Amino acid sequence: MIKISCPFCGYSKNVSVEKLPARIRGVICPICGKKFNFTAEFYTKAGFFVRLLALIIDLLILKIIAIIIGALLDYTLTYLLDKFVYWEKEKINTLIGGVIYSVWTIIPFFYFTISTWQYGKSIGKLFLGIRIVNNLGEKPDLKISIKREIVGKLLSGLILGIGFFMVLFDKNKQALHDKLAGTYVVYNL
Q: Smallest Cα–Cα separation from 178: which of 189, 168, 163, 188?
């Protein structure tokens, strides 16, 4: 059951989630006739462990992608540098290692930022039936996605990961990066 309240006239009604149509995003109030979208408060918030499982799925996918890209980069750069640059093997290996490490570091930021911005969820969240919404119950825009996925998660990690564990104790089940960006991780209706 969720409680739907009209922000215009105040009328509210408890509705069974099963009775709601699939992919519903808005409601027309039967009293005042005005249309309004669901806000984040209508949704059931996802807890720490389901979010952790979604992250593990995403990291496995990213690891496979990183291995493939890393192998291609290693092969290509080794061939090109060996053929056209007359450096010692040690310098070439150091350069290739730095490039591959940089790619492995950058890929997750792009993956999570773009998936949050474009779809409101990553592949792991999709498998578990959860998604990211802003205060209005909509998928975050690019600015909010960058704030959440890059700035917020960097800060969450810098303070010994405590920002991620805030989900366990917060009443809205928000991590530090969610609070900074004004987002929530919720179950799909």
A: 163
d(CA 31, CA 53): 42
pTM score of the predicted model: 0.76
Name the DSSP class of 168: G
Give the Cα-Cα-Cα angle 42, 45, 48 (nearest 5 degrees).
175
Contacts of 52 (CB under 8 A, 6+ apart): none
E strand residue ranges, the chain: 2-5, 12-15, 26-28, 35-37, 130-133, 184-187
Task: Please state, in angstroms and rounded to a whole number, the distance separating the CA atoms of residues 189 and 128.
Answer: 13
Q: Residue 108, Cα to own-chain centre: how many angstroms?
A: 10
User: What are the residues whose beta carbons fall under 8 Å from the beta carbon of 177, sequence distance 6 or more?
Assistant: 148, 149, 151, 152, 153, 155, 156, 163, 183
> In the chain, which stretches have pLDDT less than 50?
none
Distance of CA 116 to the CA centre of its chain: 5
In this predicted structure, what is the pLDDT of residue 112? 94
Structure tokens at 81: 């540098």
Report d(CA 88, CA 86) in Å as an integer. 7
